[in-house]
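To the structural biology subgroup,

Please find below the input and predicted structure for ARHGAP24 isoform 8, which we are adding to the shared reference set this quarter. The sequence is reproduced verbatim from the submission form. If anyone notices a discrepancy with their own records, reply to this email rather than editing the shared folder directly, so we keep one authoritative version.
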Amino acid sequence: MFVQGGDRDRMTANHESYLLMASTQNDMEDWVKSIRRVIWGPFGGGIFGQKLEDTVRYEKRYGNRLAPMLVEQCVDFIRQRGLKEEGLFRLPGQANLVKELQDAFDCGEKPSFDSNTDVHTVASLLKLYLRELPEPVIPYAKYEDFLSCAKLLSKEEEAGVKELAKQVKSLPVVNYNLLKYICRFLDEVQSYSGVNKMSVQNLATVFGPNILRPKVEDPLTIME
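Predicted structure (tokenized):
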């Protein structure tokens, strides 16, 4: 619900202010995200919660890339400074700094990471971006197909690999590119598992729900 603001709150003679009222904290945060996308979207902001294809479409003006600029920036930083960090992607970053960075990117800024930036904070920012995509990296419509691949892989590996390759190639281009980018990076991360303690299984636990999940969560399906 919007409530018209008082005279003292008016921005100018031609711009009235409005008070946004939400019944819950989550509702309020959703409204703020939506408003940011409307205001800052044309300037490259509002990317948290924005459709992947919209972000990619806007960023094409800066050249072709496999992943959104935020993802590339986080990955480049982690690759340079954090691959040997124990608990990478498992340990949380500094919540207040993650929020500050999120707000900056959402306002169309391009904050840089320096030598004082905490690796776990950048890792948390990357996970947050993926988690807030309206759809996971593998779209909801492909969930059942990929779940069937997983079941086939456990029974007939060769046939499962062929089917998996087929399904991956059928993804929309922006989703395929991002999935490829993330998988290559996570392969680098697990190659240091002796130091960072992030095996393939640990990484799958952390990233799995952001890459593949059903639109309506079913506990039985999750267990499968």
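Summary notes: Residues 44-223 form a domain with the Phosphatidylinositol 3-kinase; Chain A fold (CATH 1.10.555.10). Confidence is low (pLDDT under 50) at residues 1-13.

Regards,
Lab coordination
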